Amino acid sequence: MKNINKSSKTTILVIDDNADILDALSLLLSDNGYHVITSERGDYAENLKNQEEDLPDLIIMDVLLSGKDGREITKILKNDHHTKHIPVILISAHPRAEKSIRECGADAFLAKPFDIEELLTIIRSYT
Known about the structure:
The chain has 127 residues and is α/β, with parallel strands linked by helices. The chain is built from 5 helices and 8 strands. Strands 1-3-2-4-7-8 form a 6-stranded mixed beta sheet, sandwiched between helices. A two-stranded antiparallel sheet has the order 5-6.
């Protein structure tokens, strides 16, 4: 997990088990003025419900993580009073996953590969 110094910037947590995607999104979001936290492990997001401080303002998470399902993690987050307010954008290389993504409570879905401007527009609508 890589944590960039926290400031008054909007904090975005990016979770994907592909290090290249994490690096690309981290660079893109940092260049657009966001504070970025990255993790290759879905359990990092699951454990947010146990934190009372320093919660991210938004989460971008892959649907299929090694050993975890982003849809199940989203359900956990959206059913907990500490984290239900955090917008979750799920991303997936499987565009047919959109229906199940909406059912889990995710706020938005983007199919990989996604358009950078579309991602930034969605982020801005929640931050």
